[in-house]
């Protein structure tokens, strides 16, 4: 069993000038020897009652009285501490926790983190950005006019600022460091740090004989740094400053790449980074440093993976705040770790009323640090375009997660008459729909089903392809039986396989619900292709990306609906015209005012205009005029649109997009209620897997019944042997 270490924790205290921690509250915890920084931050979250990260708390310990305390800030510094604790008693080297908060002047400082009477107030003030206006007010109220001088450039907040002058002000020390590193690389020289602290930053040239130097310090102990002295002339006696470039660290290079990796769809490889840095700065990076630089750039843009989960409560609150009527849900484990997140926008909830009652669902694996799966539900509007209904992030595709997702969909959208669910043959989807939607038909995507047939019956799949799709799209049982007989004559195993699945799940002729010509889950696959690159994003950025994508599609589809000049949408209007051409030359013989016989070549079809049915079954299955009914409409100058479903018409299309998707404002101006801000969400349980994340998912059992390919005989078609070892060859007399 792995060794555990008992650790004394002191918090709610304050460091004095002699490096003593006073007026603290005592607590305790245990850590395993192999614990990392994330583990200790999770424990601190439970002790303090607020979300803990390296940006919100400072963890220190004293090795000796009146000595500067040591700081724990990464896994390496934690290992030093744990090695020290293993050889000491429980009361030795206690951890002293200081919570970063913003004072009344808007400047980040360290003070007592928690009080029993004002937890919510502290939580609302954690880790906010230093606002320029508040900082200037603080300086103006407390310091002399000489220290208030600001140059013409104002306070510099640009990491790629090109010039440094005496008297310049920089928003913080980190920006100043990036500017100096960039100039050193660009001008091909190196410097070394002579003194660096939270209030000072002094540099000299790497060549001891050179007189180049730089001095800066914080402006009245604020985060703003001022350039005090700068002698920008090199007087060196050798060329040592050209030998290498120490300032081209992965963190610095990552700061230069943020614009290149901002768009998830942009392919920017380490080789591209090596080329660009060489061309722009004349610095050669090795492949690993280029790869790490890209990771640093992504971290600058999106933060750390574990911190992304902490933003979810606030983000989901803002979704409902900006789009009233939307439904969101966040599920956690008993100890606060993330489990599921669900979003259904009000624009989709309202638009669903005017769309076909067909729900297409699918799941796609995520490629970020903590992996996971995104489940989506979509439908088609009156133009045949994609309308998103809901999406959720879960741990994986399993019975529990799919059941939870379908329960949320049912709570949000209810059940409509004629509703149908279309998906691939994933077993968990079948189990969940049978439990949550027991009376709703569940249909199978034709392309997924054909993929299974192709893999299981390889010998004849080229011949079977056209027959299978013709059989699936046949409207009458007579036509279906004809194609099934052809299939049986080619490979009798296929018939048994399809019968076990159930003809009503994939065949139009045997369907007990109108599928409105939606025979595949292609709309879900189209969405998967659209958000493919976004599945690399952290969960907060992923949800935000999907919401912006839905808003963009909503606006595009609404504009196209407004521009539509026909009674039906463009797609179905064109389909109607094609059928109208086919109806030319057909003979119509009336029996009553609504009952007619239509002769189509050598076949006769009986059409009942009152009941809206035809013996070809297209009229009733598609809820749109078939070519035989259109022949009657042409002869008697009737209105063809009267006999088409409202789910194909422009009016429904306009109503679908009546409600827009309202965008969410920048995170810096959110106003989050205290009860939401104190909701702590930890990342999913389990360690982040080392190495490059998986990009291609493994096929599940529902999509392919065979776990791996097997040899198929070319003579008898059976698996497990080849033609040379076949024993099923007919014996000749």
Provide keyphrases for this structure.
7-stranded mixed beta sheet; 35% helix; alpha+beta; Ubiquitin-like (UB roll); 733 residues; 6-stranded mixed beta sheet
Give the structure's gist in a few sentences:
By secondary structure, this protein is of the alpha+beta class.
Count of discrete alpha- or pi-helical segments spanning 4 or more residues? 24
Assign a percent range to the helix content: 25-40%
Which percent range describes the beta-strand content? 15-25%
Output the radius of gyration: 34 Å
Q: What structural class results from the helix and strand content?
A: alpha+beta
Number of domains: 6
Strand tally: 25
Bulk shape: elongated
- Average pLDDT level: 83
User: Biggest sheet: strands, sense, closure?
Assistant: 7 strands, mixed
Task: Name the strands of the widest sheet in spatial order.
Answer: 15-16-19-18-17-20-21
């Amino acid at each position: 069993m792995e060794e555990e270490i008992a650790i004394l924790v002191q918090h709610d205290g304050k460091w004095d000038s002699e490096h003593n921690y006073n007026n603290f509250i005592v607590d305790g915890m245990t850590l395993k020897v192999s614990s990392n920084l994330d583990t200790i931050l999770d424990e601190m979250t439970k002790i303090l009652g607020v979300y803990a990260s390296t940006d919100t708390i400072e963890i220190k310990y004293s090795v000796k009285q009146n000595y500067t305390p040591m700081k724990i800030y990464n896994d390496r510094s934690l290992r030093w501490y744990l090695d020290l604790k293993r050889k000491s008693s429980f009361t030795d080297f206690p951890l002293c926790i200081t919570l970063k908060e913003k004072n009344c002047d808007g400047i980040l400082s360290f003070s007592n983190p928690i009080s029993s009477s004002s937890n919510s107030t502290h939580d609302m003030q954690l880790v906010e950005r230093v606002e320029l206006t508040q900082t200037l007010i603080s300086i103006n109220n407390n310091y002399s006019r000489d220290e208030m001088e600001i140059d013409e450039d104002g306070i510099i907040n640009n990491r790629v600022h090109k010039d440094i002058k005496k008297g310049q002000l920089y928003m913080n020390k980190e920006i100043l460091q990036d500017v100096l590193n960039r100039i050193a690389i660009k001008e091909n020289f190196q410097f070394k740090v002579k003194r660096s602290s939270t209030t000072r930053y002094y540099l000299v040239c790497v060549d001891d004989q050179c007189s180049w130097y730089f001095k800066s310090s914080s402006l009245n102990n604020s985060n703003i740094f001022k350039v005090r002295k700068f002698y920008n002339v090199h007087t060196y006696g050798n060329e040592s400053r050209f030998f290498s470039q120490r300032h081209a660290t992965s963190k610095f290079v990552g700061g230069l790449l943020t614009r290149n990796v901002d768009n998830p769809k942009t392919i920017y490889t380490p080789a591209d980074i090596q080329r660009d840095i060489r061309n722009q700065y004349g610095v050669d990076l090795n492949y690993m440093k280029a790869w790490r630089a890209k990771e640093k750039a992504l971290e600058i843009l999106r933060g750390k993976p574990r911190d992304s989960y902490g933003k979810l409560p606030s983000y989901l609150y803002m979704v409902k705040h900006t789009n009233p009527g939307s439904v969101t849900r966040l599920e956690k484990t008993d100890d606060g770790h993330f489990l599921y997140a669900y979003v259904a926008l009000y624009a989709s909830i309202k638009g669903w009323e005017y769309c076909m009652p067909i729900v297409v669902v699918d799941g796609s694996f995520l490629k970020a640090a903590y992996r996971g799966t995104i489940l989506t539900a979509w439908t088609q509007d009156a133009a045949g375009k994609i309308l998103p209904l809901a999406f959720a992030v879960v741990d994986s595709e399993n019975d529990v997660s799919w059941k939870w997702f379908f329960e949320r969909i049912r709570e949000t959208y209810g059940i409509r008459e004629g509703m149908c669910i279309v998906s691939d043959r994933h077993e968990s989807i079948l189990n969940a729909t049978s439990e949550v939607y027991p009376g709703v038909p569940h249909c199978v995507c034709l392309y997924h089903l054909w993929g299974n047939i192709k893999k299981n019956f390889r010998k004849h799949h080229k011949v079977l392809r056209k027959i299978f799709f013709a059989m699936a799209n046949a409207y009458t049982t007579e036509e279906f039986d004809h194609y099934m007989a052809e299939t049986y004559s080619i490979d009798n195993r296929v018939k048994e396989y399809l019968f076990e699945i159930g003809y009503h799940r994939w065949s139009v002729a045997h369907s007990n619900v109108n599928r409105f010509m939606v025979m595949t889950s292609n709309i879900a696959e189209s969405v998967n292709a659209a958000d493919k690159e976004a599945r690399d994003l952290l969960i907060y950025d992923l949800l935000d990306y999907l919401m912006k994508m839905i808003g963009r599609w909503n606006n595009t589809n609404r504009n196209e609906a407004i521009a539509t000049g026909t009674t039906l949408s463009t797609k179905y209007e064109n389909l109607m015209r094609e059928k109208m051409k086919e109806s030319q030359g057909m003979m119509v013989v009336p029996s009553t005012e609504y009952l007619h016989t239509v002769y189509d070549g050598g076949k006769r079809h009986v059409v009942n205009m009152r009941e809206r049915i035809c013996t070809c079954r297209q009229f009733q299955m598609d809820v749109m005029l078939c070519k035989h009914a259109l022949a009657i409409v042409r002869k008697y100058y009737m209105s063809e649109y009267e006999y088409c479903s409202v789910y194909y018409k422009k009016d429904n299309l306009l109503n679908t997009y009546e409600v827009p998707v309202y965008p969410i404002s920048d995170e810096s101006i959110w106003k989050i209620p205290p009860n939401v801000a104190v909701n702590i969400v930890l990342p999913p349980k389990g360690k982040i897997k080392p190495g490059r994340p998986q990009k291609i998912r493994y096929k599940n059992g529902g999509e392919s019944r065979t776990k791996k390919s097997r040899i198929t005989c070319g003579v008898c078609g059976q698996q497990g042997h080849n033609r040379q070892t076949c024993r099923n060859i007919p014996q000749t007399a």
